[in-house]
Design goal:
The protein is 33% helix and 26% strand. It is of the alpha+beta class and 400 residues long. It has an 18-stranded mixed sheet that branches. A hairpin with a 4-residue loop joins strand 6 and strand 7. Helix 4 packs antiparallel against helix 5. The N terminus is likely disordered.
Length: 400
């Protein structure tokens, strides 16, 4: 099917032309980057599991080594197993998990902050992290920020451990708006799960007592309804946080770890995230290609993601790239406008074509799917001059 798709949609209008300006493609490219902060911790463990820009958004992403200083106000992205120890050793934080969650999260990303009010403070930009009390005695306080709100987790005893996951996406039926208002934002959902010990979670004047299974172990928040009234009991940890116990699951976990380790090794050897991405995009292994595509979107390299779409002969690269782009515009408010503006700045798409791209990166709602005009809209765009529009229309039709 993919070969037919490529022959039917082949065109010199390439995905790489999506952006001619790299800054327009970057999630933070239009912002003035904060000054390089003070040291608040250090990376721990194998090199190449964490990546940073060394204090400036304009710099290339570079792998971090074991015991390398982590600065405040510096965005970190990473691979599963990337670990950070706060400066005084009181709290440790680990980035989690690739391709293993009930929510379709992709890469983890965090920013640490300097604080005198807690042992650790960080913004969870996206994805899944785990943190724990590493003190010899006493409680540890961790401040977690996301979507403009803050939670405080008090890890009551040494070893107490919590997992937090943030997923953000446009809800079904939400249409792209060039002039979006404050209410036009992706829906964000967070899960707080106690894995060990006792944790008190505080948010917006409310405090709940939580404990690891069997106990009141999980509570959720979303950007529409807020925090649940109370945590829910779990008899045991959910299966997705535990190591697999079947042979197929164990084999896949070993494969993922091998791929992640190889990617980290390549990034360290070349001292470049870009070089590791290039090598893995050219791989014969679908899992390695998937990791490369996720890394392109995670590092805001949309021009290179477009180039990969143009040049790849693999169906999985197309599929993974579309999913990565949908994930990218769902990170937070304004992401889809950035993509639209980048297309306008590139002067390769007409406003109508760019509008179609953004509409097609959103999901159709139930009312849309019950309307024959939706299918006419998609079929009509199979003849569009732009490969991206044609391909996305096909992507939807093939699923409907």
């Amino acid at each position: 099917m993919f070969d037919i798709l490529r022959r039917y949609f082949s065109s010199p209008a390439l995905f790489a032309a999506l952006f001619l300006s790299g800054s327009a493609a970057r999630a933070d490219g239009e912002k003035t980057p904060p000054p390089h902060g003070v040291e608040v911790g250090k990376s721990v463990g194998p090199a190449g599991r964490l990546f940073h820009r060394g204090g400036g958004a304009a710099k290339a992403w570079a792998p971090m080594g074991d015991k390398e200083a982590v600065a405040s106000e510096e965005l970190l992205i990473g691979l599963p197993g990337g670990e950070i120890e706060i400066q005084d050793g009181s709290v440790r934080l680990k980035l989690l998990k690739l391709f293993n969650s009930p929510l379709p999260v992709l890469e983890p990303a965090v920013t640490l902050h300097r604080t005198t009010d807690a042992d650790m403070a960080f913004t969870l930009e996206r994805g899944m992290v785990e943190f724990w009390n590493a003190k010899a005695k006493g409680s540890a306080r961790v401040q977690i920020s996301a979507r403009g709100e803050t939670w405080e987790a008090v890890l009551e005893e040494p070893g107490a451990r919590m997992l937090v996951e943030l997923y953000s996406a446009w809800p079904k039926g939400a249409h792209f708006k060039k002039n979006a208002g404050a209410a036009d934002a992706p829906l964000a959902r967070m899960t707080f799960l106690v894995l060990k010990g006792q944790v008190d979670l505080k948010h917006a004047g409310t405090q709940v007592a939580m404990s690891a299974p069997p106990g009141l172990a999980v509570i959720e928040w979303d950007s529409v309804t807020g925090l649940d009234d109370s945590p829910q009991p779990l008899k045991e940890p959910p299966a997705w946080v535990l190591p697999p116990n079947d042979e197929a699951g164990k084999a896949f976990a070993r494969k993922v770890e091998k791929v992640v380790g190889s990617f980290a090794d390549e990034a360290v050897k070349s001292k470049s995230l870009d070089a590791a991405i290039d090598k893995f995009l050219a791989s014969d292994d679908p899992l390695e290609r998937k990791l490369a595509v996720v890394a392109l979107a995670a590092s805001d390299e949309l021009p290179r993601l477009g180039k990969a779409l143009r040049e790849s002969h693999q169906a999985d690269v197309w599929e993974d790239a579309v999913l990565a782009l949908r994930h990218w515009i769902g990170r937070g408010p304004g992401q889809d406008q950035k993509l639209y503006q980048g297309m306008m700045d590139a002067k390769t798409f007409t406003p109508a074509e760019a509008d179609s791209v953004l509409q097609l990166l959103h999901d159709f709602g139930d009312n849309d799917l019950a309307n024959p005009a939706t299918y006419a809209y998609l079929i009509n765009r199979l003849g569009n001059d732009q490969l991206f529009v044609r391909g996305l229309a096909y992507w939807h039709l093939s699923r409907l």
